[in-house]
Write a structure and sequence with these properties.
heterodimer, A: about 400 residues, alpha/beta, Rossmann fold, six-stranded mixed beta sheet, two-stranded antiparallel sheet, 12 helices, B: about 450 residues, 20 helices, about 55% helix, globular
């Protein structure tokens, strides 16, 4: 077969077409893209999953299954027959755990090929962007306008300037304009050169501080705290989009209150009763000590199971209204671990009164991880409405409680 | 690795021809492992892009990293045939693989099913597939990746639903139904016609439009490409391209046991009878051979699947030993796996190979059943019926364009997986563009209709 030999000789040396790119990798990337689209479509459910948030990281890891390209298949039968090989006698019984179906998944995938799980990493910023598109959350309105700070910005051109600010493109254009004749050799003269100018401009800089207050009394379970954490995490992401500088303050309380840094905050667990006013007073104290309500936009989000001691009601009410008067928004999430009391608690009542009084406040009952998005949506829509109303001088519409 | 093996190719070809193998010339090419893997994933050296191949690619990559699968060669029938050998093969492996490839070349040149499909598809499937890939690339540029992908989602989901008993370039159904009753030309007719010639002939003018399809149609790719009410021509082309590739894949699928067995039989025999292979290379090659044709389970173990190389090899050895080479060649030409297994997997051989039949329950319990030969044949062949797909056919197109699909639950014994079927209907609906109704059976066996949208 001399022809074959000849072709072999001729091909040697030159780069083969199949070495130039990998079609498998190309199609794999497309699959990846599709997974990302699918994840994006179901973002709230997936992201709300408990373990997606790594502390401090700017990415979120989401476990996903490989996509399946569907074909017509017969339903899985209770019993299927096959042919095998080996020393086995009729009546022998084996068990093959790989064929077992998990209790949760009904008849999908599993046995065909070893199930492969992918761990996709998403940028938190991307996710927040998607969510804003997806949920059509209104942008937050700052109550306190921009403070005036100045900054250098580029503005206009001049014929004189530092060499480093020479705008080549612009200079070239000037040269072409002057020359008029397309045929001639390009030559620059001093009049052609343009330098970028800098000017001092006032920059709006909006400050915000968010207080996260968490009830860590004995009645709050690990799961409750985790729910609160997930919620807080996304609130921070949302607010961070809106404010150039955002400070967070973490306060935990039982019958007394402490300020924590972020990593410790979520690990705290206390015991004993709940006296919400201690936490609220702590917040008040921090505001007075560090922030000027006239200069910063203040947010307070409080997560609790709502079991405030009855004797504390009056103190808590006073403390809360004093904060609410200075805050852009105060939100209360009730993490009640499946108990269906939904906001009919002591703390719930206090916040409801606040809302009724026309303050920018809202409440939401958070029972499941799936609800986290509902809560975020609820607060951000409510906050924006409240902001609008406050600006136009009318009483805010009552921010409704959760469905 | 040097190119030493190439010097053996010519000698092996001569040796094979002298042993009675008849084949088209084969182009041998050593390629990197990465490319071997892609060929295994796509089934063809160059094929249309689709994300589902990406999924297979990753599975393949994982398997390779776990050391599970190793590919020595891939061969494509044709004139000339194309054989790709892995660059990582040693000399002995390549000598063995060359002989193996020639066995395949002999098979695909002489087996009737292969010949028929090659007559349809032409002997240049590799080039055709590359051409399809180019066309689809052009379609992506004109119509956008999303629309092309939606079409491919549907077409590739139906890739097993072809009717290879039909022509590849198949005519549309006749437009009109044939008149069922041909009027007898008797004396009465003649006198009647003489009475009023106009009336008599007018009756014959009335023709009835044939229903579409005139009979349940299982060639779904063809049917959709031809009768979808609002499909664009480039979409039809994609459906027909996928169909053509399915025509190529069918014989590979339906003769796997025979074909791999035949190639293994011949590589063993050619090597044994070759006087030009150095001793050491021969020993290495035979060791490699026994790895390839060994049962899935080692001795004293039990395996729930059967290595087709092993089964085919054992069957051909038996057949040649008992009936002679001429008879074996005859069988090779005439049969596919269905006939081959049913006719030549005898009780003695099944016992010798320790084959058994089992039933597996969904809780993972597996029970070995009695060694009844016919049932064993069927257990082996069951995954191969109808290109391995449920028998779904197009039953009717309503006046409003609604497509009625019918799943034959009596043939398949149970209904379709509903979740997957719904997804397939969703794919298909995007190109059919009118409602689709699929009739199948539910868990209890009663009729169930799925609809899209």
């Amino acid at each position: 077969m001399s022809e074959g030999d000849g072709r072999r000789g001729e091909k040697a040396g030159a780069a083969k077409w199949y070495e130039l790119f990998s079609r498998g990798a190309r199609d794999w990337l497309r699959h990846d893209e599709k997974v990302r689209e699918a994840v994006r479509a179901n973002l709230p459910e997936i992201i709300a999953g408990a373990d997606v948030i790594n502390n401090g990281a700017r990415t979120v890891r989401v476990p996903v299954r490989m996509l399946e390209h569907y074909h017509f298949r017969l339903r899985r039968s209770e019993e299927s027959q096959g042919a095998g090989q080996g020393k086995a006698k009729p009546g022998d019984v084996f068990s093959d755990p790989s064929r077992q179906q998990g209790p949760g998944e009904k008849g999908s995938g599993g046995r065909e090929e070893g199930e492969v799980q992918l761990l996709l990493e998403f940028k938190v910023d991307d996710i927040v962007d998607w969510l804003w598109e997806e949920m059509q959350l209104p942008n937050l309105k700052a109550r306190i306008g921009p403070s005036e700070e100045t900054d250098w910005v580029r503005e206009g051109w001049d014929r004189h300037g530092a060499r480093s600010r020479l705008d080549r493109r612009r200079s070239f254009k000037e040269m072409v304009k002057r020359r008029g004749n397309p045929g001639a050799t390009p030559n620059f003269i001093d009049e052609d050169l343009r330098y970028r100018q800098l000017a001092r401009r006032r920059q709006p800089a909006v400050h915000a501080v968010v207080f996260f207050m968490l009830d860590v009394s004995g009645s709050m379970s690990d799961r409750d705290r985790k729910l609160a954490k997930t919620f807080f995490f996304w609130v921070v992401q949302g607010l961070r989009r809106e404010y150039r500088s955002l400070e967070t303050v973490f306060v935990a309380h039982t019958t007394e209150a402490w300020e924590f840094n972020e990593p410790d905050f979520f690990k705290v667990s206390g015991s004993g009763g709940t006296v919400a006013s201690t936490g609220l007073l702590k917040v008040r104290e921090i505001i007075d000590a560090r922030y000027n309500p006239g200069r910063s936009n203040i947010y307070l989000f409080y997560a609790s199971d709502g079991d405030n001691s009855v004797s504390d009601a009056q103190d808590a009410r006073t403390a809360l209204s004093s904060i609410a008067a200075d805050a852009c928004f105060t939100g209360y999430v009730e993490v009640s671990s499946g108990l269906s009391r939904q906001l009919a608690t002591e703390t719930g009542k206090i916040f409801a009164e606040l809302t009724d009084a026309g303050c920018a406040a809202g409440s939401y009952a958070l029972n499941e991880f799936d609800d986290v998005w509902g809560a975020v949506r609820h607060f951000f829509t409510a906050e924006s409405n409240a902001g609008e109303a406050a600006r136009s001088g009318e009483p805010a519409p009552p921010a409704g409680s959760s469905p | 690795m040097s190119d030493d093996w190439q010097s053996y190719v010519r000698r092996m070809e001569e040796h094979a021809a002298a042993s009675g193998l008849k084949f088209h010339p084969v182009d041998f090419e050593a390629v990197p492992d990465s490319f071997m893997m892609e060929i295994a994933v796509y089934g063809l050296p160059v094929r249309m892009p689709h994300w589902s191949f990406g999924v297979r690619y990753i599975y393949q990559l994982i398997q390779r990293h776990m050391g599970h699968s190793r590919l020595f060669e891939v061969v494509f029938p044709g004139n000339p045939g194309h054989a790709y050998l892995a660059e990582s093969n040693g000399l002995a492996e390549n000598i063995l693989v060359t002989a193996h490839v020639l066995g395949h070349a002999d098979f695909s040149h002489n087996n009737l099913l292969f010949r028929r499909c090659q007559e349809q598809v032409s002997e240049r499937i590799v080039e055709h597939a590359a051409n399809h890939a180019r066309q689809i690339q052009a379609a992506i540029e004109t119509h956008g990746a999303q629309r092309v992908e939606a079409t491919l989602d549907a077409a590739l989901a139906l890739e097993q639903h072809v009717d290879i008993d039909q022509q590849l370039r198949r005519q549309r159904y006749p437009e009109y139904a044939e008149d069922p009753k041909v009027l007898a030309d008797d004396s009465f007719r003649r006198r009647f016609a003489a009475l009023e010639p106009a009336a008599a002939s007018a009756g014959l003018e009335v023709r009835k439009r044939a229903p579409v399809p005139p009979h349940p149609e299982r060639d779904l790719l063809w049917f959709v490409a031809n009768y979808a009410p609002e499909m664009e021509s480039w979409e039809r082309d994609i459906f027909l391209a996928v169909r053509e590739e399915s025509f190529y894949f069918y014989p590979v699928f339906a003769t796997q046991i025979m074909n791999e067995g035949w190639a293994s039989y011949w590589h063993a025999r050619l090597l044994r009878e070759a006087d030009f292979v150095p001793q050491q290379a021969y020993l290495d090659a035979i060791k490699c051979h026994s790895d390839v044709v060994r049962p899935v389970a080692a001795e004293q173990q039990v395996s729930l699947s059967i290595n087709p190389y092993h089964l085919g090899f054992a069957m051909w050895e038996k057949i040649v030993e008992r009936d002679g080479l001429e008879k074996a060649r005859h069988i090779m030409e005439q049969d596919d796996d269905f006939g081959f297994v049913r006719n030549y997997l005898t009780r003695e051989l099944a016992e010798e190979l320790d084959l058994f039949r089992y039933s597996a329950r969904s809780d993972g319990q597996i029970k070995v059943l009695d060694a009844e030969l016919t049932s064993l044949h069927e257990a082996l062949l069951a995954p191969k019926y109808n290109f391995g797909a449920p028998s779904v056919s197009a039953a009717h197109v309503r006046n409003d364009g609604t497509l009625e699909l019918l799943h034959d639950t009596t043939v398949d014994g149970r209904g379709l997986d509903l979740e997957r079927s719904r997804k397939v209907l969703d794919y298909l609906q995007k190109v059919w563009r009118r409602p689709i109704i699929l009739t199948t059976a539910n868990q209890a066996g009663s009729t169930l209709e799925l609809t899209a949208p």
